[in-house]
Fold this sequence. Notes:
- This protein is 35% helix and 23% strand.
- Helix 8 crosses helix 9 (265-290).
- By secondary structure, the chain is α/β, with parallel strands linked by helices.
- It has three domains: 1-94 and 189-208, Periplasmic binding protein-like II (D-Maltodextrin-Binding Protein, domain 2, 3-Layer(aba) Sandwich); 101-176, Periplasmic binding protein-like II (D-Maltodextrin-Binding Protein, domain 2, 3-Layer(aba) Sandwich); 209-289, Porphobilinogen deaminase, C-terminal domain (Double Stranded RNA Binding Domain, 2-Layer Sandwich).
- It is built from nine helices and 13 strands.
Amino acid sequence: MSIKIGTRGSKLALLQTGTVAKKLTDMGIETEQVIIRTAGDTTTQVPLHEIGGQGVFVRALDDAILAGDIDCAVHSMKDIPVYRPSGLITAAILERDSAADFIAYRGSLSTVRVVGTSSTRRRAQLLRHDPSVMVRDLRGNVDTRIRKMSSGEYDAIILAEAGLTRMGIHIQGERLPPEKFVPSPNQGTIAVVSRADPSLREVLSVLDHPQTRTDVMIERAVMEQLGGGCYTPLGVYNHAGHLIAEVLSLDGGRAERIETDIRTIEEARDQGRQLRVRAQGLIDEAYSQLGITGIRS
Length: 297
């Protein structure tokens, strides 16, 4: 059996796809990697919420699977929207790496004044921690972001620690504790999406890590109830049944938060519904301030 794997063309995406391909090769399965450009890769000068939010890195790969151009695609799971096209499945979720954010900086942390990130969540959490910092939009791949910081455009940037680890990048900075800087749902996780073909699913499911799947599906159940995609500043993190979720105002000055132990997906949905009721005002406010219209779920 030979499997055609779709991927974005960034260095991190290729490394992640290479990890999946090697696991399959070690099982005696031939693979071919196909690079597909997405809207998130070609439009880098504006914030994500202005070009379609969370799904901009995924849609072109979804279309290629459904068209039969590729058999599956490898994604950072945090980029995959809750609502998925019919005919696609998340066939495998690899063991999670660090879910935490990492602040990389020049000089010393005490002198940081300008921080780069395009994430509304990271912006809000930074401003909550230190309202005096200036947060400026920053898009591009990991190398581009680091280069812009090194050139002096930013004093610091926020990155996913898992991405740095996978790329073998060692840079001055600090891990941000996920209990305080609650990560995006599914951050640090690699997923393999495929068409709903039983034989393909059987092969890819060998790559699945059950505990990680449980953790991230609980996070997605909460995210499903909250809605918002990357528009609303929200973090959801579940580890071994301990769930933390929060929704913040864009300026970080207000937040609604839950922290509890979870055993089932239905319990997670219930917690998400409760948080949605409490945070509805913050969600509506974020949409209004960002100029987002349409369905908010």
